[in-house]
Amino acid sequence: MLTDPLTGAATKGFAGAYGTAPEGIWSAPGRVNLIGEHTDYNDGFVLPFAIGARTAVAAAHRDDGFLVVASAQYPDEVVTVPLAEIEAEGPPGVAGWPGYVAGVAWAVTRASSGHAGPGPAGSGVSLYVTSDVPAGSGLSSSAALECATGCALNDLWQAGASRGELARACRRAENEVVGAPTGIMDQFASLFGEEGGAVFLDCREVTGEIVPLDPEAAGLEILLADTGERHAHASGGYASRRASCERAAEALGVRALRDVSAKDLEKAAATLDDETFRRARHVVTENGRVLEMARALRAGALRDTTGGAGALHQRRAAVGALLTASHASMRDDFEITTPALDLAVETAVRAGAFGARMTGGGFGGSVLALVPQGYAGVVGDEITAAFDRDGYDPPALSTVSPSAGARRDTYP
Ligand code: GLA
Question: Which structural domain, as residue segments, surrounds residue 155?
Answer without folding.
Answer: 5-36+44-209+404-408
